[in-house]
Design goal:
alpha+beta, seven-stranded mixed beta sheet, six-stranded antiparallel beta sheet, 13 strands, globular, binds adenosine-5'-diphosphate
Length: 282
Amino acid sequence: MIDENALRILTDAGMTDRIIAVEETGSTNDIAKQLMAGGFTGTALIIAECQTAGRGRLGRSWASPAGTGIWMSYLDTELVSTPSEHFNPACITLLAGLSVAETVNEYTSSVMTGRKAEDTLFHAGIKWPNDVVVNGKKLCGILTELVTEADKNSLIVGIGINTGQNSFPPELSDKATSYYLETGIFPEREIIIRRVIEKLRDYCISYKIAGSLSFVSDRYNRLMISKDKEVVLTAANGEFADNPYFARGITETGDLIVENRYGKMQSIRSGEVSVRGMLGYV
Ligand code: ADP
C-alpha cells in the first residue's frame, strides 16, 4: 500500500489540499468526479492500489492490477475555474507526460549512481500526445478530463504508471512495459508520485500564466520519441494520403507539427489523428 505519510510533504508544500489513498476503486478519475459532485473545491490527489475499470482515451481500458503501478488522479477545481480562451486541456496532457518522463529519468539517474554504465541506458521518451514510452513500449498513459459542474470547470489528470509488473497479459505484452521490467528495480512509488505532482503543478501554473506551451517546447521536443522520424498518420476516415510524414515537434498549443516529403508543414490536433511509427506502436 502507498505510504500516505511519505506524501504529506505535498500537502505541507501546498501542492495539494487533500490526499485520498484507497485499496481499490473503479477509476481514480471517478473518485475525483465524486469529490466535485460533493462540492469539493481546491486540489486533491487520489491514489488507488488497484483499479477495476481503469480507462484510456476513447473509452479504452487501462490495466491497473493491485500493487504493480501508480494509479492516480490529480484534481484541480481552481486552475480553470473561469473559462479561459488560452486554456486547452490537451496541453495539460502534454505537461503530465513531460512530468512523468522527466521524473522517471531523473529517478533512474539517482538510483543508478554507482552502477555500471551499461545499466543506466534506461530512457523514457514521450509518444505524442499522451504516452510515456521506454524501449518502444508504453510505461505510462495519461487521461485528462475537463469536467463542468455547476458552471465551474475542473481539471482531472489521470496518470497510470507501470512500476512493478513482471509480465503483461498477451494482448499487451508487445506494447506495454514496467519500470521493473526495464531496470530490475521496484521504484519507490511515493518518490515518483511526489516528483510527478510537484512538476505537474509547476508546469500547470506556468502554462496558465504564459497561455502557451512555448516555455517547455524545447524540453518536450527533446523527449519526443518520433521527433524527426517518419510517422504514419491515421484519421477516422483512413490513412493520410501523403504518409509517411516526419514529426517535427509541438506547437505552442500542443499540436504536432508534421512535414510531408515535399517539405510542406501542417499541424495535427490530438484526439483527431492517431500517430504511429513505421514499425508498429511507436
Ligand atoms: P493510445 O493512446 O495508445 O491509443 P490510450 O492512451 O487510450 O491508448 O490507452 C489505452 C490503451 O493502452 C489500451 O487500449 C491498451 O492497448 C493499452 N494499455 C492498457 N493498459 C495498459 C497498461 N497497464 N500499460 C500499457 N498499456 C496499456
